Automatic annotation (TrEMBL):
The lineage of its organism: unclassified sequences, metagenomes, ecological metagenomes. It is a multi-pass membrane protein. The chain crosses the membrane at residues 278-301, 322-347, 353-372, 412-436, 448-466, 492-510, 544-563, 575-601, 613-637. This is Urea ABC transporter permease subunit UrtB. It comes from marine metagenome. CDD domains: TM_PBP1_LivH_like (cd06582).
Length: 653
């Protein structure tokens, strides 16, 4: 429904001065608001060209309030009511099931008041529809991006500069983009504005632009090495080659710019692949550090090591959930875990029957705990909560106390999740070692089969509890990237993983070489009988070593949540084989070997993945096959790995 444009221009000013809004301190609109509302009134006119021009005139004002209005206009939420332009984004029903429209001011977003002093809620049928056409929606989107060029926020300004250079091209923004390219204080914004300006000129849609100016834009896109221009130049070359009129100078300029941009793209891809390889290698190192301890130092082939990584990832998810929805820890779960630890201690007793009782008690306690855990049920309605108060279906009838850690801020969850992931995986490792692994030392085949079975059980427990796939939201500081050179962006999340890997390696080296427990571990590894005769509690050393290796796997899962998905079989599918390859290539039990081989395998994997041969892209699967072939070939020449054991260790192996 269209009304006379002249009529609306006459009534808009009167409405802005007479219509009250919800703000207590505001009774009239400013003169600038009056001008904006006059432009909005043109959107109700019958002339399509005038409506489109009104959208750009609104954008040129630079008023940030208009972005929301333009979005509402695109969504069909702008109406006419009592000769006034209003906004209604959602409707509601009254007692008689009439659909009512709560009205808000198009600029301020404040409620429009009716005669009774309350927010006006007329029937939807009483509103005049101002539905934009498809072309007008596109123009509104362009106007919104043009409006962002005036923003004081650098991120918003950058977004606007980029969007203006994407199809459909914002021709009216060419001049303003040129000014931004020269005067803006942000280097990235200046580059993006210049790039978008040249892309608009490349399109050939700028009025009164001649061929020489278009060719110059093509050359400059090659000089600034614009990756956004790559597909457009390729399309332009195809268009020129299929055209009847031959423009050799433009074709030559396109080909030269393409060569420059493609060369730059290869450089960017090399840097990106190397960095992704280093971050993947860091995760493999975190995984393989635990394996180097359990497999290299203890001789246990732990096929459940990937599931220990999965436990660390799900623990991170639980800590995040605790900060958002709260977590209730019931008294029965505490009692069952305490009983399991107590019985586990009895299972280490030298007396045969006491050991049997401890093993059976530990098994029963863990079984009951896991049933309650998977079913999300509680036997004793007493406990305490951490984080915000939980929902009613999660709460217990009696809370002993409540710790509101959520007030620390959402991002703080990731700091707490680090020790939590380590401890959760380490506790599972303690029970694995005490119930199963300790009976299988120096029996590699049996330990392989037993831990593989444990891994399958852990996968099913996670699948029953969480389903097949969950997501962990990265903290705010881990989002975004650091641009070290043009188009080479290093994600903060991957930088953090590499730093965490370095910290873990230094910690393990310090512990193994400069602490008492590290001395005991090395002594037990070299000669268990001699260490026992010198007073070393080898059982305690075994338990600690296995738990420590399991905890490192949990830290790897914690790190992986920043860059990958969390699934029950994530460790078994993606990491366990690669982790064993890292340990074998580096040298069994050699921690420095783990570092070099982990980085090498990670780099090789990510460098090979994007390679193409005769039109065939290698991809992730064939890259793993290639890496495996390389590892097998390497072992033929160096069976002991990069860092071969020396002295007595070499004789023992």
């Amino acid at each position: 429904m269209r009304y006379s444009l002249a009529f609306f221009m006459a009534v808009v000013t009167g409405w802005t001065l007479s219509q009250p809004v919800a703000a207590a301190d505001s009774s009239t609109d400013t003169s600038s608001d009056v001008a904006l509302l006059e432009q909005m009134a043109k959107l109700a006119g019958d002339d399509a060209a005038a409506r489109k021009q009104a959208l750009f005139d609104l954008a040129k004002t630079g008023d940030s309030r208009l972005e929301e209005f333009l979005e509402n206009y695109r969504g069909g939420s702008v109406y006419l009511w009592n000769e006034q332009i209003v906004v209604c984004t959602e409707t509601e029903e009254d007692e008689d099931f009439n659909e009512l429209a709560p009205l808000t001011h198009p600029l301020t977003g404040e409620p429009v008041l009716g005669d009774d002093g309350k927010q006006a809620k007329p029937d939807v049928l009483d509103l005049g529809d101002i539905s934009p056409s498809r072309d007008e929606r596109k123009v509104a989107a362009q106007a919104k991006f043009f409006l962002r060029l005036f923003s004081l926020d650098a991120e918003v300004r950058l977004s606007g500069a980029k969007k203006c250079g994407d199809p459909p091209y914002n021709i009216d923004a060419v001049e303003l983009l040129g000014e931004i390219a020269q005067k803006d204080s942000d280097n990235k914004i200046r580059y993006t504005a210049r790039e978008s300006q040249l892309l608009i000129q490349l399109s050939g849609q700028v009025p009164e632009q001649n061929t020489e100016e278009r060719i110059e834009a093509i050359r400059q896109l090659g000089e600034i090495k614009s990756l956004r221009a790559l597909p457009r130049l390729e399309a332009l070359i195809n268009e020129l080659e299929s055209s009847e009129s031959v423009d050799l100078s433009m074709q030559q300029a396109c080909r030269q710019s393409l060569r420059d941009i493609q060369s730059h793209q290869k450089t960017v891809d090399r840097f990106s692949n190397v960095f992704r390889g280093l971050s993947l290698g860091s995760v493999l190192i975190l995984m393989a550090l635990g394996l180097a301890i359990t497999f290299g130092l203890m001789g246990v082939i732990n096929m459940a090591h990937g599931e220990l990584m999965m436990i660390g990832a799900y623990t991170t998810y639980e800590i995040q959930h605790m900060f958002v929805n709260g977590m209730t820890i019931t008294l029965d779960s505490i009692i069952l875990l305490a009983a399991a630890f107590g019985f586990l201690y009895l299972s280490q007793n030298r007396h045969k029957w006491v050991s049997y009782i401890g093993t059976i008690g530990t098994t029963i306690s863990l079984a009951v705990f896991l049933v309650l855990f998977m079913g999300r049920i509680s036997l004793l309605p007493i406990g305490f909560t951490i984080g915000p108060m939980p929902n009613l279906d999660q709460a217990v009838s009696m809370n002993l106390f409540h710790v509101n850690v959520a007030r620390l801020g959402f991002d703080f969850y990731y700091l707490i999740a680090l020790p939590a992931a380590f401890l959760a995986a380490a506790v599972v490792g303690v029970f694995m070692e005490g119930l199963v692994v300790r009976h299988l030392y120096r029996r590699p085949l049996e330990s392989l089969l037993a831990t593989w079975g444990i891994g399958l059980v852990l996968i099913q427990i996670a699948r029953i509890r969480y389903g097949d796939n969950i997501g962990v939201n990265a903290p705010e500081w881990a989002r975004g990237s650091l641009e070290v050179m043009q188009d080479v962006n290093l994600p903060y999340a991957r930088i953090f993983i590499m730093g965490l890997c370095l910290l873990a390696v230094l910690m393990v080296l310090w512990q193994m070489n400069h602490t008492r427990i590290g001395l005991h571990i090395r002594a037990t590894m070299q000669s268990r009988d001699m260490a026992r005769s010198l007073g070393v509690n080898t059982r305690r050393v075994d338990r600690f070593t296995f738990a420590f290796g399991a905890g490192l796997a949990g830290v790897a899962g914690y790190a992986w949540t920043l860059i990958g998905g969390v699934t029950p079989d994530m460790g078994q599918t993606n990491f366990i084989v690669d982790s064993f390859l890292v340990v074998v290539v580096g040298g069994v039990g050699e921690l420095l070997g783990v570092v070099f081989s982990g980085l090498g395998i990670g780099l090789l994997t990510k460098v090979v993945e994007p390679m193409q041969f005769w039109g065939f892209t290698v991809g992730a699967i064939w890259a793993k096959v290639f890496v495996l072939v390389c590892v097998v070939a390497f072992i033929q020449f160096k069976p002991a790995g990069l860092f071969a054991p020396k002295g007595r260790l070499a004789d023992d192996r």
